[in-house]
Design a protein that fits this description.
Strand 5 (70-77) and strand 6 (80-85) form a beta hairpin. It contains one helix and ten strands, in the order αββββββββββ. The protein has a single domain (2-125), classed as Immunoglobulin-like (Sandwich), CATH 2.60.40. By secondary structure, it is mostly beta strands. A six-stranded antiparallel beta sheet has the order 1-2-3-4-8-7, with no helix packed on it. A four-stranded antiparallel beta sheet has the order 6-5-9-10, covered by helices on one side.
Length: 127
């Protein structure tokens, strides 16, 4: 059930159908990525050539443990939508391997359920 609901929510984010009231963009994060505030948490997206990394922190910027977080991301790039399985990596990261580098303008949506029960949703556009 989590998988189906996650896919529907993330697909809606990628397609822009979800209200921006769920999350809003902050300044650049400590790891050089864009930070989105969602449900009192911060999610920083840092793409590389081979991985999509999301750093988790609280409203004060203190890292939040990723262990036990269930998360999925969707990438819309070049007319294709691809799901990414995010793996929690200590201390505060969610990481997915990329089949190929993300293009400028690619849209990325992430949805996560934290151990504390908070549901996080954010979307990004690759610079």
């Amino acid at each position: 059930m989590f998988r189906k609901a996650t896919q529907l929510i993330a697909a809606a984010f990628v397609l822009g159908a979800v209200s921006p009231a769920f999350a809003h963009e902050e300044a650049k994060g400590p790891n050089g990525g864009h930070v989105i505030e969602a449900a009192g948490h911060h999610i920083e997206f840092v793409p590389s050539q081979t991985e999509a990394t999301f750093y988790l922190s609280d409203a004060a910027g203190k890292p939040i443990a990723s262990k036990g977080t269930k998360a999925k991301a969707f990438v819309q790039d070049g007319g294709k939508t691809v799901p990414l399985e995010l793996t929690p990596v200590d201390p505060d990261k969610l990481i997915a391997k990329l089949a190929s580098p993300l293009s400028s303008g690619a849209k990325v949506a992430v949805t996560a359920t934290m151990v504390d029960g908070h549901n996080l949703q954010a979307r990004y556009v690759v610079p």
